[in-house]
Write a structure and sequence with these properties.
The protein is α/β, with parallel strands linked by helices and 443 residues long. It is 43% helix and 14% strand.
């Protein structure tokens, strides 16, 4: 069966980022304050160098989707004021090149002190255990809430700078025109069937051609598996759990939404952009990530929109994503890098970063932040994370495994929607692939 699927998927894309990140700036290495608001701080730090002994440089491999680099360097400037013996420099790399850049630097023995990463699995063996360097390992670990995985085999390898969640963004104008009310609280959450009926009513009573658009993403689809009560792995995370009634339930419902015309085939069977479809008012709801709030903030002007709760099947669930800040072994500045991570992960610093970039925070105490737009939207996404058990975070933290199945699974779903593969055939094939992958990973 695996050979059948592989043949059908020849030429398909083989990798997708878990968090939907894109782009970045052309690779540059700039002084810490260049192009940011930290010039004065850097100058002040420079003036103190003569009295502070040896200056230790922390170079940071970084990618930006927006102004994250600027926000980071503002905080770095504050840190350099407090620690004049530290100099922080940014190496900006396009997101698509981060993994290869880090691999090349490591192979050359030129690993950076720090890096902003989404795929820990690529560099996991080269990262330091922060427990060995921070002042209070237990307190540092307890600084973070549930969601993104932070510990690996008893080691604390990276600190989450932000966290994302999947959710429902809806066309408020269309729902009001159709006379359909969305859930306003966690007590009113729709079941899958109730959500489906609501979408049909909006399609009938508004200008929306479709009820729902869904990102072409295995991570987004996996939300349905978790909502159905399933999982990708067994409890001990050493065996596949993909071949299950819950996975079948999720796939069959997803196919039904397409077969019934509630979801457009042009996204999963073509190249149409789901963001563009929602922005132009063609679709009543967008099953997307929390980062879309910032994107839609300025892009949608023709109708009102909002965020409502995800529907549920057997249980409530979303899939966390996000970015970590990690420090590398063999740099000679491991302690200094860990201390900086510990500082920037404190609630005050983390809140500044998340608010400026419209991110959710995984730092305890930052569950509700003072965003200048969409605070009520972020609260709903945060509630979705809080209602989700730790299974999605643990499984998506096992990125070596996720990377081994996600492309085949995503493209296999497209083959099911096209009628080229049955639900059962896909499940059997991906289960076989997962079993083989786990055997290699567990050797």
């Amino acid at each position: 069966m695996k050979k059948i699927l592989a043949g059908m998927l020849a030429g398909a894309m083989v990798f997708g980022a878990l968090t939907g990140c894109s782009g970045g700036n052309k690779e540059t290495q700039a002084p810490a304050a260049e192009g940011t608001a930290t010039t004065a701080a850097a100058e002040a730090s420079s003036e103190k160098e003569a009295d502070s002994g040896e200056i230790k440089t922390l170079d940071v491999v970084w990618f930006s989707d927006g102004k994250e680099g600027e926000s980071f360097m503002k905080l770095a400037g504050e840190y350099m004021e407090l620690h004049p013996e530290i100099k922080i420099e940014l190496i900006e790399v396009p997101y698509a090149d981060v993994d290869n850049k880090l691999k090349n630097m490591i192979n050359a023995g030129q690993q950076p002190a720090l890096a902003r990463i989404t795929n820990l699995g690529v560099v996991q063996n080269q990262l330091i255990d922060l427990n060995q360097y921070v002042s209070d390992p237990e307190g540092f670990k307890n600084n973070f809430g549930s969601g993104l995985r932070t510990d690996f085999d008893g080691k604390f390898l990276a600190a989450p700078m932000d966290v994302t969640a999947n959710g429902i963004i809806y066309n408020k104008t269309a729902f009001e025109k159709a006379g359909v009310a969305v859930p306003q609280s966690e007590d009113e959450i729709w079941t899958w069937e109730e959500y489906e009926e609501a979408l049909k009513k909006v399609m009938e009573g508004s200008d929306c051609k479709y009820g729902m658009v869904f990102d072409f993403s295995q991570q987004r689809f996996a939300t349905l598996i978790y909502q159905a009560g399933g999982s990708l792995l067994k409890d001990d995370m050493t065996a596949s759990n993909i071949n299950s009634p819950e996975t079948k339930r999720a796939l069959e419902w997803f196919k039904k939404l397409h077969d019934d015309g509630i979801m457009p085939a042009s996204v999963w069977l073509g190249a149409e952009n789901p963001n563009e479809m929602f922005r132009t008012g063609q679709v009543a709801t967008h099953f997307a990530g929390s980062w879309m709030i910032a994107n839609y903030k300025d892009q949608i002007t023709d109708f009102e929109w909002g965020v409502t709760y995800l529907p549920k099947d057997a249980t409530r669930a979303t899939v966390p994503g996000g970015k970590w800040l990690a420090a590398f072994d063999g740099t000679g500045v491991e302690k200094e890098a860990a201390e900086f991570i510990e500082w920037i992960s404190q609630p005050e610093q983390n809140a500044k970063y998340c608010v400026e970039n419209y991110y959710l925070s995984q730092v305890k105490g930052n569950e509700s932040l003072d965003y200048d737009f969409g605070a009520e939207f972020f609260e709903i996404f945060s509630n979705e994370l809080n209602a989700t058990n730790d299974v999605p975070g643990k499984e998506y933290g096992y990125q070596a495994f996720i990377n081994s199945i996600q492309a085949d699974m995503k493209n296999g779903i497209s083959e099911v929607l096209a009628g080229n593969l049955s639900v059962d055939e896909l499940i059997e094939s991906i289960d076989e692939l997962a079993t083989e992958s786990l055997a290699e990973l567990n050797e």
